[in-house]
Amino acid sequence: MTEPAHARHPAELRALVRVLLRWFGHNARNLPWRRTRDPYAIWIAEVMLQQTRVSTVQSYWERWMRELPDLPSLARAHPRRLRKLWEGLGYYRRLDHLRSAARLILEQHAGRFPHTYDEILKLPGIGPYTAGAIASAAFNLPTPVVDGNVARVLSRFRGRPLTARSADSWALATRLVQIAARCMPVALLPLAEPGRPGTAPLCPPCSALNQALMELGATICLPHNPRCTDCPLRSRCLHARQGGADPGRATRRSPAEPRRLVACLVRSHGHWLLHQRSTGVNRGYWELPVFELPSDRPPSGHFPTDPESWFEFEPSPTQGPPTIVHHITRFRYHVEIRAARLKRPWPPGHWLTPRQLQNRPLSRLTTKILHHWTSTAGATAKHPEHDPAPHKRHASEGPTLLK
Ligand code: SF4
Q1: Reported pTM
Q2: Residue identifier of the C-alpha nearest atom 1 of ligand 1
Q3: pLDDT value for 253
Q4: Residues with a known catalytic role
């Protein structure tokens, strides 16, 4: 089937833009950053949303905006405070970029967030997608955004395999957002106070168009089961007209490689053994001792091996040790959580009280392990106590994260 005329003709593209804007006005999810046009607030949301689900980001964004409401507060913030605010979001290099960019804006732009796409793109850690999202949302510039969700919508709509890197995806998104620039702002009705549609915040049309495409990809045009019957594009979409045959992907992800880890929970007199990463993506974050279990493949390089030379494990419960699944890059880790004793002093280790544990920035995996442990039978299991003679202990004990 050839590409339909409505995918090419200006009148049809205008109609498509109108449909998208109307649909977004009635279906936008009620997200807190959709109530602001402050470029700083939008920037923080966009960076948090990279690689992270919307539902996860909301509470992080609200806490961040309460504690660091503007560029100067971010530029002044201590790295440890930033890490704590970001704890659990992963991809921690984003934090370094945020702080560097805030300082650069204060020094080179007199504290005013850059107003053009090219200037925004020059900030550390900002690529074309994020620059386009900020420029359209904060300044209503007709800058396109194409991520995996948008590319999937455009690909199916046109019946051609397009990706977030295809020039064709960006060209079509550009045409659409340029048309939207001539439209009226869109009232976001789901964000209005109950029973008072007049209180709906107005979204600039370039931002509304970009967000409509993203929203459609995230909520309707799903990767495996697109909900075409609920889609405003169904009468114009080639994918829907072809009966759901995907145009295919230019690249397919290879399946995640399974690996096994063991995480060691070592406690002594109410203190827990952790260490602070000095290199890598988790630099500055605190972690439990975690080891990769031997397999017939070479280790992945993320974790050391040979836990038995350092730790003696307590017998596992009859149903086996608690286990969680954690993804890092292309690896899918099955992590056994084991209570253990130290056989000999562990060089990079520190003994932390529960209060210190709560206040230090923890790696995503460690946070996950501790949450799992505290919410399962592991928390009530008998845990070994032993004397870590070489280590200094702290006098104070706060509320217990782990009991
Ligand atoms: S009609 Fe179906 S395939 Fe086409 S854009 Fe909508 S949800 Fe996606």
Answers
A1: 0.73
A2: 234
A3: 60
A4: 46
